[in-house]
Structures are given as C-alpha cells and as structure tokens.
Amino acid sequence: QPTAPRPKETRVFVVANQKGGVGKTTSTVNIAAALTQLGQRVLVIDLDPQGNASTALNVPHQQGTPSTYDVLVDGVPLADVMQDCPDAAGLQVVPATIDLAGAEIELVSVVAREGRLKKAIAAHPQVGSEADAGPERFDYVLIDCPPSLGLLTLNALVAGAEMMIPIQAEYYALEGLGQLLSTVDMVRAHLNPELAVSTILLTMFDSRTRLAHGVAADVRDHFGDQVLKTAIPRSVRVSEAPSYGQTVMTYDPASPGALSYLEAAREIATRGSLT
Ligand code: ADP
Ligand code: MG
User: In the record, which residues are listed under signal peptide (predicted)?
Assistant: First the structure.
C-alpha cells in the first residue's frame, strides 16, 4: 500500500469554480478517495444542494437527513451529521440534501453568516494538529462547492486555507475565472487572509486534441506552479463510476482516470501547502 506523509495540520481545501460541469464534484470525491489510498484520513463536506458528492460517495442524503444544512443554519456539530463512506476506509462525508437550497436565503438574517462553516470545522475535535486532535485526526477536509459564488461558496472560502480550482480543458476554460479570482481577492482582503489558490487541476483532458493542449498551455502560463502536473483525462470510466455507487478509485482502479487521480492526490500530499 503506497503512502504519503501526513500534514502537520489538517489541510482544508475549497473545491470551487462557479462554472458548472467542470469536474468539481468528480475531482472532490476521487481526490478524497485517492488520498485515503495514500493513508490519509479525509472528510468531504458536500456544500451543493444537488448532493452529487453525497451520491457519488454513496451516503444517504434524502430530504431530512442530517446534513450541511443543519450545520450552517442550526449550528449542529459536524460530528453529528457525518457518515462513513462505504466505498473507502478513512473517508467520511457530511452529506448535502435539497434543504440546503433554502439555506442561502435563511442565512441572510443570521449573525456572522459567512463564518458558519469555518466555526463548525474549527470546533471539530478531529481537526488540527495530531497532538491536539489525536490519531483519528483528519488530514484533509475537502469542500465541494455549488456552481455559484453565493453565500454557500462564501462560507467555504472563509473556512478553507487552500483553494482547488478544477478547470476543464476546453475553449471557454479561462472565461469566468476572473470573477472567481476577484472574489478570492475580496475574501482574502476582508474575511480570510490565509486563503490561497494552491491547486489548479486540469480535468476532462483529451490529449488527442490540439485545443486541449493549447488550453492546458494557457492555464500553465497563467498559473504556473499552482497547476498540478497531472491532468485528468476524459474517460467514460470516471463518469460511470457514480452510477455504481463507487468512486473510480474502486470501480476501476487500473483505469487512466483512477491512476491520474491517484497521481494528482500524491502531488497534493507530497508538495504540501504552497501557502
Ligand atoms: P461539477 O461538479 O463542476 O458541476 P462534475 O464533477 O459533476 O462537475 O462533472 C460534470 C460531468 O462531467 C459529470 O457528468 C461527470 O461524470 C463528467 N466528468 C467529470 N470528469 C470526467 C472525466 N475525467 N471524464 C469523463 N467525464 C467526466
Ligand atoms: Mg458538482
């Protein structure tokens, strides 16, 4: 079993891009599962009312299931709503239900509404240094954001120190990123000075097309070392895994998609925080 060094402190990643369909959820669940294969303990927080990460990780999330909604709106501790992922040892999930769609509006009247998730994560006994949080400590927390820059994503940007932006290697890839990056600047200036875009992940990379190579070159020119060397190839095995209630890491571990996610996770773990 390959392993990677465990970080000194829990690393909290915000997986965000306000564009839908770029591979946020797919990357969150597969990087999470890959990290557990490298001996890491991981918590995934599903922050999208669609609950796609909950579906992909095969945890119940029908309406009324204790979820991120309860954490954000009622201040319920994360420990009370998290579930074991049946597909990967060492992986736990805070599911999202459709109730979360209302949270954006319900939170408007709440005090310190953009800091609710940060507070919940900080209060979790398994978050922090190993000395403080014990052997069951989470090494990574990955937050899967909805495709918007509203109050849910804002809560994630306030809660995390590192941001992972999945970028689909296609023509419009860089469009809209300006808005995302100015939101990050705003959050850094006013709400979370620690926030850094540490990781850019190229997804759905089709190596046969010149377009994909061109987009990848543009992204690497623009973001430099923030871009992981490993790009995730477009592969039907990746997209069909959720319908079997599995990540591609267990559905087809020898497939190019699974191997790439494992390599991307290894890069993340070995290079540590760039902040
Ligand atoms: P987002 O969370 O950003 O909206 P998803 O992760 O849900 O994006 O991905 C959007 C669609 O693309 C899904 O149907 C997913 O299965 C598919 N997909 C994601 N990554 C790949 C890949 N590497 N190869 C093939 N299909 C993929
Ligand atoms: Mg998604």
Answer: none
Q: What distance in Å separates the CA atoms of residue 85 and residue 95, rounded to the nearest whole number?
A: 10
Q: Report how many domains make up the chain.
A: 1
- Rounded Cα distance between 162 and 112, Å, is 21
Other Cβ atoms within 10 Å of 237 Cβ, number: 15
Q: Is residue 5 part of a domain?
A: no
CB 266 near ligand 1, within 6 Å? no
Residues spanned by the domain of 125? 11-271
Q: pLDDT digit string (tens) for 64-116? A: 999 999 999 999 999 999 999 999 999 999 999 999 999 988 998 888 899 99
Q: Domain containing 222 — which CATH number?
A: 3.40.50.300
pLDDT of residue 52: 97
Q: Which of 14, 26, 28 to mutate to test the pocket of ligand 1 (most atoms within 8 A of CB)?
A: 26
pLDDT, tens digit, 9 for 90 and up, residues 226-238: 999 999 999 999 9
In terms of Cα–Cα distance, which of 41, 111, 37, 45 is closest to 73? Answer: 111
User: Quick one: which atom of ligand 1 is closest to the CA of 233?
Assistant: 23
Q: Report whether residue 234 contacts ligand 1, using a CB cutoff of 6 Å.
A: yes
Mean pLDDT of 194-210: 96
In a domain, residue 4? The reply is no
Residue 191 lies in a domain: yes
| Within a domain: 47 | yes
Helix (H) or strand (E) holding 74: helix 68-74
Q: How confident is the model at residue 275 (pLDDT cuts 50, 70, 90)?
A: very low
Determine the distance separating the centroid of ligand 1 and the alpha carbon of 218, expressed in angstroms: 21
